[in-house]
Amino acid sequence: MLTVLLHSGIGDIAAVVTRWFGGTKLGTGGLVKAYSLAVQQTLLDLPRSERVELLRCTVQVTYADIASMQHLWAQHEIEVLSERYETDVHYTLSLPKENYLSFEVAVRNATRGQAVIETEQESRETHDS
Fold first, then answer.
1. Distance separating alpha carbons of residues 27 and 17, to the nearest angstrom
2. What is the pLDDT of residues 35-87, one digit of tens each?
3. Of 96, 97, 116, nearest in space to 107 by CA
4. Which of 73, 97, 103, 124 could connect to 55 by a Cys-Cys bridge, CB 3.0–4.6 Å?
5. Residue extents of the structural domains in the chain
6. Distant-in-sequence contacts of 63-71, Cβ < 8 A, 24+ apart
7. Which residues fall within 8 angstroms of residue 65, CB to CB, at 6 or more apart?
8. Which residues on neighbouring strands pair with residue 60, listed in sequence order?
9. What does the longest C-alpha to C-alpha distance in the chain come to?
10. How many CA atoms lie within 13 A of 58 on its CB side?
11. Which overall architecture, per CATH, does domain 50-128 show?
12. β-strand 49-61 against 79-85: which pairing, if any?
C-alpha cells in the first residue's frame, strides 16, 4: 500500500485498511496483491485538488489609486476580502503566496510608492483541479 501511495505522485495522502478474516488464507503474497490493487483502484477514482498557500495582506491607497489597484486583482489572482473607505482606501486581500512579491512591486509602481502594504497571516486553501 505504501509503495503504491509513494509512487502515485500525490502528496498528503494515507490509506487505512481494516482486515476481517473470512476463512480464506491469502498468504503474504496474496495480501500484498489485494491491498495494492485496492489502493490502485481507489486512486483511479480519487478526486484531486491542488493545495495553494495563500497570504493575507492589507493595502492602504488613496482614492486616486482605486482604479490602478482594481486592475491588479486578476493579474495576481487576488481575492478582495474587505474594503473600507475612510480618509484612504483600505483593502484586505488574499492571494497566492507565490504571487506576493510581483504584486507588491506592481502596487508600489501603480501608487508611486505611496501604498502601505502589510502582510497579516498565512493560510492554506485548496483549489480543485
1. 16
2. 899 899 989 988 888 778 899 999 999 999 999 999 999 899 999 999 999 99
3. 116
4. 97
5. 2-45, 50-128
6. 63/88, 63/89, 65/89, 65/110, 65/111, 65/114, 65/115, 68/110, 68/111, 69/107, 69/110, 69/111, 71/110
7. 89, 110, 111, 114, 115
8. 90, 116
9. 78
10. 11
11. 2-Layer Sandwich (3.30)
12. unpaired
CA–CA distance, 105 with 113 (Å, rounded to integer): 9
- Of residues 103, 81, 77, 101, the one with CA closest to residue 92: 81
DSSP code at position 11: S
Give 21 or 9, the one with higher predicted confidence: 9
Residue 41 is placed in which grid cell?
Answer: 483502484
pTM over 0.85: no
